[in-house]
Design brief:
By secondary structure, the protein is of the alpha+beta class. The chain has 13 helices and 44 strands.
Amino acid sequence: MLKNSLPVQAYDRAERLLGHHRPELVLRSKVSPEWIGDTGRFTYRVDTERGGEFVLIDPATATKSQAFDHERLATVLSAAADQMVKPYALPFRSVEVTDDAIEFGAFDSRWRYQPADGSCTRKTGPAQSDESGVASPDGKWVAFRRDHNVWVRSVDTDEETAITTDGSADLSYACDADSIGSRFRLAKLGLRERPRLMWSPDSSRILTHQIDQRPVEWMHLVESVPADGSRPRLHSYRYALPGEPLPQAEWVVLDVAARSVVRGAGTFNLEYASPLLTAVAWWAADGATVYHLDTARDQLTLRLVALDPATGELRTLITESDSTRVEPAQVGPPLVKVLAGGQEALWYSQRDGWGHLYRYDLATGEPVEQLTKGELAVQQILHVDETERVAYLTVSGLVPNDPYCRTLVKVSLDGGELTRLTDDHLDHEVSTDPAGQWFVDSASTVNTPPTITLRDRNGTVVMELERADITRLLAAGWTAPERIRALAADGVTEIFGVLHKPYGFDPTKSYPVIDHPYPGPQIHRVRPGFDQGGYASESEAMVALGFAVFAIDGRGTPGRDKAFHDYSWRNMGGAGGLEDHVAALKQLGTERPWLDLDRVGIFGLSGGGFATARALLTFPDFYRVGVAEAGNHDNRFYIAGWAEIYDGPYDPEAGARLSNTELAANLTGKLMLVHGDMDDNVTPHLTMRLVDALIEANRDFDLLIVPGVEHSFYGRRQYVTRRRWDYFVRHLMNVEPPTNYRIPEAALSAEELAAAAS
């Protein structure tokens, strides 16, 4: 029995640093502009000392003001809605500004506030259907799904009409494949999946697809403890595994006025999410063409396809193939733009080893010229000005000593002359207005809080919008992480990450180390800027407990050159370069003797859960303790769209490359496996397969099955967090944790709810 115990104050401190407290601790750190038509003006909501405030910016005059009188609006909205409303905790996150009013959604209604007379009225009009819908650009129609079909409702008359009538559970319109794995969470939150459809620019037609899931095998979940207290309940849904038949989708264009349906000539694989969700399909500005990026199942060929919405004819415009996966971007939306009314296109390619833009002639399907060159990677196309023949981009690779930092540039569409619009060592997260006249630029590093400015097309700072205030964060016990560089296991490749020193750091002491991985290969684990995303709070809480925490992007993760990313191809077992994690930690341990490399732990969720178990099974002499949450431990039985995209075409002989189960006998450390019994994404049988293999190998381990929760453990997340803390405190710090410490469950933020509903 352990004699010493960790003071409860350490858990209090760690709890304070969890993500749901972040808006209270980091002020003025984010600006998400809501552009007001084509005026260039915009509003945004910002966290301040008083709470949430709405700001109005006029770039033409470089002025900043309150978007409205918060106190007055709170008073009149309270009276109109018969609800208590606080002025700096308003029940909405965005507003629509018109000439004489502010409109917003709150309390399941749309409201109109007129500052001139102080009135706040519920907007009148037809009753809303209970289905989530998508409004047409002209505001006259709402399209929605009902009984697996697409319907439209007239905003003026409330009349509802079915445009399709042949939909069924296995032949459904405007939805994702069942295996996207979010339906249980949506139901738990009382949300509906948004229909996967897109209006034409003139509001006359709807682009969607019909999915045929009949060839797809079934997956089953047992809801052990239903909320209504009834007996266990079976949930079954279509779920394709690697190598199995995939859902097939057919493009459909619906004419609202004619109530007619035009079908695309051919089908495409729908492995996971709709192409209308992932932005790989879009309408041309004139509505005359639909464009779609189609990837072959083996991931070795990418095509730009044009669909004629009047006839359903499909034409292939560009084709690119390679010996490893061909991607339209390594991270984020596709870097492809059709220009000149369909005559040319900007096309992203890694054919020379880096992610560059090429200008193509769509009449021939051939490249005209390479626009960006050198050891840099295009990360984002912000705006293309076809009149001036320039594109505004963010690229990485121009900042010395950090290949991930993004720089704002413009590049000529004729000749590729590149001009830097930001010239510093910072990471620039940039957004722009629809006309590409103004850029909102958040500049930071991992340990430099953001300064957010408004820039013009020349990169000149017009005005400072916000400067982050981390006073409260520091007072809560937070310290900035250190940006680290090390050599990968090959002894040549530089890799980058962050290292958090433990709370109350004393260089004369020795501290246990925790690795917090996510193996990608579709996102960064460590971002180059101050906002480290959802992973940050979990790491920072562990730091507050007294651990050193380490995170790094090993080979196989995205954001750099193609060879670096391709390290994961046919190498899913590498789990984002785990051997690079070990190599980096050994280098850091030599330079920083306060890192106790005899006490190294690791934890992660989802792919991070796979990597956690993988670490203990492949490096049992290095990793001593691990907590693997919702891990896809046997990728032979996880969704086809994961193993096939990131490992390559399914190889039934892959064995241990795809599965932790075949390495179970290697376990010597302490491992806790955690899974929700209603995880419809990484299904719980993937953990149970590892459990079975560990029992067969006669290995000891710990298991926590959480009833009634899905992949994010919503509703029991903080219980899982506390159990993780306890496990590391007890087995890595070698002291007893506080007894039965309780972390209150936090409601989802507005952003998290919006993301869930999307």
